[in-house]
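Narrative progress, year one. The postdoctoral researcher (J.K.) led the effort to move from monomer predictions toward full complexes, under supervision of the PI. The following entry was the first complex the group processed end to end, covering 571 residues in total.
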Amino acid sequence: MQLYLPIADLPVNVFLILAMGAAVGFVSGMFGIGGGFLMTPLLIFVGIAPAVAVATVASHIAASSFSGALSYWRKRAIDPMLALVLLCGGMAGTVLGVWTFTRLRSLGQLDLLIALSYVVLLSGVGGAMFWEGLRAIQRSKHGQVVPLRRSGAHGWIHGLPLKVRFKRSKIYLSAIPVVAIGLIIGFIGAIMGIGGGFILVPMLIYLLRIPTSTVIGTSMLLTLVTMTFATVLHAATNHLVDVVLALILMTGGVTGAQFGARAGQRIRGEHLRLLLGLLILAVGIRFAVELGIRPADLYTVRETTGGT
Amino acid sequence: MRTRAICLATGLALLLGVTFIAGDARAEHLIVSVSNHRVTVTPNYSGEELVLFGSIERERDTPVPRSGYDLVVTVSGPRVDMVTRRKERWFGIWVNADSRQFLNVPAYLAIFANRPLDKIATPDILRRQQLGLNNVLLTQRVGPDYADVVASDPFRRAFIRLRTDLGLYQENTSAVTFLTPTLFRTGIPLPAEVPTGTYTVGIKLLADGALIAKTETAFEIVKVGFEQFVATTARQHGLLYGVATACMGLMAGWMASIVFRRD
């Protein structure tokens, strides 16, 4: 069934988009991530303009992270104080991201930036995750037990001033790195159309040593607020959020996520990380190849104004 | 604006020329009609074809030209500004480097004729009458200058090629068919991505390589229904639209957490 997308300005097959939403939802439910880094590229590959894809996926992530955040809230797995401090940076980062997005769009370099950020970020994070997962599997084969946290190994981050007590996470930490991380996530989230959970969670665990019990829930809350905010900002400044597309994605996404979550519980942690790393790496490489090979058409045409 | 003024001026001049010619020797004039003056684009619109019918009316003693009549139909959509960008290799990756702005060019442009344009008239006449994709005026801004460039300009050619790929620009020199020596028809295909607005249809009648009559008609393409409402709202009330979309997202998330709740 063909449906016309009012903002993306092209007809699409509803079932194709629904299936994409469900597939990404499945993966995101399985790994406990927002799935923006898969959704945005898929939409771009289908032919939707990168700018519209980024802006629309923001609303889709808001939806999926809200249902996630709600269930973590009920389990009391969200640290409100930590979320608040992260959000201070996150909101500022989102504003900065949307502003950069608008500037680059008028310069005609937005698509390049989106592609480049995907290559750098996804190859880096995916590669690291893949490598880490591979080593973890090898270690478990040899029967070694790895301590997840070395006690007393506090880095320079833990020596910074402005310390705040995060009660639910049972941690006493400077607010500066927390705000900085929020800022980075908000910024790249707004530009790339990703929630940033897959970067935020490792950052919080490995850099700030926040216990895993509150990390995922808190990161979902941050994703929820920054992405809701990004949706509103993208709609208000660039008029690029396609509500019809968003609705189809959400419907597929939230349904797929439920089945994914069940599937994820049956797979072992290291394998899950290995798979996720591989997936992220694959998307990154796909973008890199796209940039490197000579495009089929060197020219592009875009409408700049409504004319007279 | 400037292009418009020029168009208007040429149009007026041609009109005067036509009446002069008609009064002088020839007495043909055109009567045309499109099958639908108002095309509505609904959410499941997937392209449509309009039909243009027409007849060449002659005075009783006017002879049919030996080579027969030739017709060129030019359909042009609403005017928009567009930018064409060219990618170049830069440190191993392909980036947008050079660009040209096309000002006030038709978003849709279709040219139909009954036989190849080069057989209808000389290149000079074709250029003066703007017949064919290579001869239509497409104003570019190159730095501070406003001008149309030669048909072989790479940016102009790429622009026309890309619009043609979308089905929004086309030239078909066998689309006009004569049902009788004076009765003709042509189809006007409108693809799914057709832009909304007012479309003008210019019909030019030629014989023996010279313009002998012309007329103009128009139709309108409007988008109706929910999707048009959405597009308008998104443009005019961006903030409200964004808040509404965000709320919809939150609602969807909330519903999902209720429907699939397991704890």
